[in-house]
Design goal:
single chain; alpha/beta; 12% strand; globular; 323 residues
Length: 323
Amino acid sequence: MIPVKIGPYVLPSNVVLAPMAGVTDRPFRHLCRRFGAGLAASEMLTAEVRLWDTPKSRRRMDHSGEPSPRVVQIAGIDPAMMADAAQRNVDAGAEIIDINMGCPAKKVCNRLAGSALMQDEALVERILHAVVRAVSAPVMLKTRTGWNRDNKNAIRIAEIAEDCGIQALSVHGRTRADMFQGAAEHDTVATIKATVKIPVFANGDIDTPQRAYEILQSTGCDGVMIGRAAQGRPWIFDEVNFFLHSGKLRRDLPPENVRDIMRAHLEDLYALYGDETGVRVARKHLSWYLRQHPGQEVLRNRLVTLETPHEQLSMLLEHFHFG
């Protein structure tokens, strides 16, 4: 595969992590980059600067120790606020800005942000133009295929984006109305790739190395973006990269390797969030990790009720017979 270049940055891999609210915090981004993700964008950050003085926003803006290029995703509906938010994040160390016009969540779309913006192409153009003009860093855009199946306008949005100076697109193969239901369709993504000259990443239902290869071949896209399939399986990036380069499948990770990944991940969560919040955040990751191993329901149910880091780690390591 030809390496993807976004602005001055040549990505180490064409397989990238999708930004996911409540998931792609700094520990998870570090983990996915370690396993070969070419990019790992932050969780979505509101463009309303007045809301940044909260522990959640401050954590989302913390990129300590992250490898380059550091990507911050912003969301909002006001062009001037979006431009200001982008500039502030670049000043704070962001090297690529990603604009969210793909989130289907009601609390985002009810404010006409996220994928709801696709209903107003004129506003989309104003936002993209304002952000691109405000920063020297390259700007990416994430969209869906449209608002609903009767209103698929992602091709037009892609043309607007390219005209405004957006330097890469990622497109989830569902409409906003689809949420995450049904199968993603990538025909629209293929048409977008054939329409614009900037890099395009296909997103949606890419959950195996073989599927990543199929989507790349069928769409002609420059790369793939993996989201939910990385939950509990951050090493999927290594598996996909290995398959794309060799045509072979990686062997399954030995249990002791999985144990060490889980332990390091949990310790990073405790360090970032503190014990109380760290334990709560760790519960969902433990559920995702153990989902990969049928028959672990009893252990999973016990782990998600524990209240302290010591209890969580002790039970996890005891299960894997590790002292």
